[in-house]
């Protein structure tokens, strides 16, 4: 799988597609919150993507933001299942009330 950036950018938001063998399997938006901080929004994946595949999608996005020199990735969770997945992927819950999770990108 790989990420392809779309040429559309609006108000600090940029769209991306996730592809496997040149076929689209998902999409998402990164919305810039401030310099070096982006929020993952509207992540969707095809129904046939397995749970392990979803973990791989998060790893792919985390690697991508590291390459783009984003220092923090934010995700607003809407479910306990997503909370569990985010914790597994080294995200930390920054705001319990809003269920805002953050991933601090470590650049070596």
From TrEMBL:
It comes from the Bacteria. This is N-acetyltransferase domain-containing protein. It comes from Halobacillus amylolyticus.
